[in-house]
Amino acid sequence: MTKDPSKDNRIEALYAALTDLRDAAETRAFLFDLCTPQEIVAMAERWEIARLLYAGKRSYREIAAQTGASTATVSRVARFLKSGADGYRMMLDRSSGETPAQREKKQ
Fold first, then answer.
1. Residue 40: which region, alpha, beta or left (left: phi > 0; alpha: psi -120 to 50)?
2. CA distances from 58 to 17, 53, 67, 84, 94 (A)
């Protein structure tokens, strides 16, 4: 596999497949077939960490204790939340019902 995911057609095909999913039931079925149970749990754990960090009311240690993740995982998610590709933030804004402009005003 190449180091730059944008140059791997298989990864682009996966992105395209994900965009074709219509609802949570289809997404669940696809991920069940695609991923191991441990991979799904790891993704869910990172998503929960991102949600808790986004809420901004807990320390890294508290989040680690609540989720069962290591503080290294919490730090990694925080780093991507702050300076990643904005995927976490985009989905967190959507799920919270806030626009990015509304979120900016709060900070």
1. alpha
2. 35, 7, 12, 21, 21
Domains of the chain: 5-106 (1.10.1270.10)
Which amino acid does the sequence have at 41? V
| pLDDT for the residue 51 | 96
pTM of the model: 0.82
Contact 1/8 with Cβ under 8 angstroms?
A: yes
Type and span of the H or E element at 25: helix 24-34
pLDDT tens digit sequence for 12-69: 999 999 999 999 999 999 999 999 999 999 999 999 999 999 999 999 999 999 999 9
3-class secondary-structure state, position 19: helix
Q: Are 5 and 11 in contact (CB under 8 A)?
A: yes
Residue 49 near residue 60 (C-beta atoms within 8 A): no
Burial 97-107 (b: 16+ CB within 10 A, else e): eeeeeeeeeee
